[in-house]
Amino acid sequence: QVQLVESGGGLVQAGGSLRLSCAASAGSGRTFSSYTMGWFRQPPGKEREFVAAISWGGGRTYYADSVKGRFTISRDNTKYMVYLQMSSLKPEDTAVYYCAADASMVVQTTRRSYDYWGQGTQVTVSS
Fold this sequence. Notes:
Blueprint: E1 3-7, E2 10-13, E3 18-25, E4 36-42, E5 49-54, E6 61-63, E7 71-76, E8 81-86, E9 95-102, E10 116-117, E11 121-126
Parallel strand pairs: 2-11
Antiparallel strand pairs: 1-3, 3-8, 4-5, 4-9, 5-6, 7-8, 9-10, 9-11
């Protein structure tokens, strides 16, 4: 069982930046570094969508086309933390952002591949 807690959301003007953090506590038998980690978001009235993912060692990252070049995912396995640095934010980035963990160790971009989810943090970008 992995517990995930997101933080860092808030209100920002278009063009601004935010850094989201996700604190993880891994269950017994597995370490945090054995999980692929991802960020998803759910805009108002829409389905939850993939944003970014990072492999267990941090060597591979994947991004949705809509955020490529603006967002950066990273992780610190010594601190059990995952981050999402968001820059050049746009009003369409407004959403609840969720941190997720995938026990398969294969980097996935689909929602159903992830086993554990945080409660989400709201990001609102004003125009």
